[in-house]
Design brief:
By secondary structure, this protein is an alpha/beta fold. The chain is built from 13 helices and 23 strands. It has helices at 28-39, 52-56, 66-74, 79-84, 104-108, 117-130, 179-182, 251-260, 264-269, 313-334, 338-365, 373-388, 390-401; strands spanning 4-5, 8-9, 16-18, 21-24, 44-47, 63-64, 86-88, 90-95, 98-103, 112-114, 134-136, 140-145, 153-158, 161-166, 169-172, 190-205, 215-219, 222-228, 234-240, 275-289, 292-293, 296-298, 304-305. The strands form five sheets. It has an eight-stranded mixed beta sheet with strand order 9-8-17-18-19-16-20-23, with helices on both faces. A hairpin with a 5-residue loop joins strand 18 (222-228) and strand 19 (234-240). The chain starts with a strand and ends with a helix. Residues 9-13 have low confidence and may be disordered. Bound molecules: adenosine-5-diphosphoribose and P-hydroxybenzoic acid. P-hydroxybenzoic acid is lined by residues 61-63, 214, 225, 227, 235, 308-311. Adenosine-5-diphosphoribose binds next to helix 1 and helix 10.
Amino acid sequence: MLWQLAGKKNELAGGSVRTQVAIIGSGPAGLLLGQLLHGAGIDAVILERQSRDYVLSRIRAGVLEDGTVRLLDAVGAGARLHAEGLPHDGFELLFGGRRHRIDLQRLTGRRVTIYGQTEMTRDLMDLRASEGAATVFEAKDVALHDFDGSKPSVTFTKDGVAQRLDCEFIAGCDGYHGISRASVPGSAMQIFERGYPFGWLGILADVPPVSHELIYAGEERGFALCSMRSQSRSRYYVQCAADEDIANWPDERFWDELRLRLDPATAEALVTGPSIEKSIAPLRSFVAEPMRFGRLFLAGDAAHIVPPTGAKGLNLAASDVHYLSQALIDYFGERSSAGIDAYSAKALARVWKAERFSWWLTSLMHHFPQDSAFGRRIQRAELDYLAGSDHAMAALAENYVGLPY
Ligand code: APR
Ligand code: PHB
């Protein structure tokens, strides 16, 4: 059997195809990188382990920084986002029984856009398909070769037949569990990580959101988040034990627990309904350094993970591939390696600021089981300080809307 790509036909089983950049993974990082390169006339093939439908069935976060929106516009994938996305000028912090609004617009002159990562992925996939750019779904046994030399390649199996892609660079955009980071010898990499003693239990339901803006709640029973995907679809989370069994959480228990973590007016206004998705996500901070190994670059979750508080994961993937695409455009345009040499340090500088922010907001808003009464008082003092200080709120807002790049 052959795998056929626009302008690329691999007639022989076991034969090889050439491309400039092999992109591993068709999540947001791989897809956005693919379009940024395509727009600059650089040829790339995306190899994705899963099927298109599987990738589009994953429910992820949904807050886009304006930098992410700008990139989507730049590649021509912004139309539906602007038509259906919800611009948000602020969000609320709930603690001590009261909600405190963080006015992003007043504090930063900027806003965020609520648009599901799943929808953004769909838009990028549709665009890529309409432009005839090559994606191989269900590419099995992907293996990276010779990225420490001058002629890297990627082998994989498609429909049971071994295939090879020869390339100049490999972009590892295959997420935390991908093969790219795992292909690098441990001795060449430094890992920084922190676990948290809790997870998020999330529910998606076709009910109107309880409030037109997001509410991050940090009350005694633990963290809760009221979010949304649209005017008629809500996304809610409650902090749960790290080893919680989802079978113990029928919808009714979830809604009851959520109400207990909200202020009375919000709890009263909450509209509940059957869940259409329910899952538990662990919380983790993780960074692998560097983000370049010879002709292999890592981008997005392949290189770093943030806890979801603040919704930085997707936005970091976007800034990574912005830096990486610029570096590759310089390389192929001017044969200058200055950009690719600087990629890792440039990307990591922004990654670490988002790591700090996500860790800080997580630490501020969650109930830490081992925390002493002293720790709780410090959390509360910091929240009080935030709510009463424009300077503190501005620092939160500046990070929330996204540091510039
Ligand atoms: N071969 C090919 N593809 C692979 C392999 C592999 N060995 N391993 C993983 N993949 C694919 C996954 O199936 C997935 O579609 O790589 C893709 C990685 O996508 P994401 O996990 O979405 O990662 P990324 O594109 O970096 O996006 C970062 O999206 O996943 C969220 O929380 C994450 O919000 C963050 C953002
Ligand atoms: C979400 O809608 O899934 C979401 C929103 C904000 C966050 C995290 C997740 O900080």
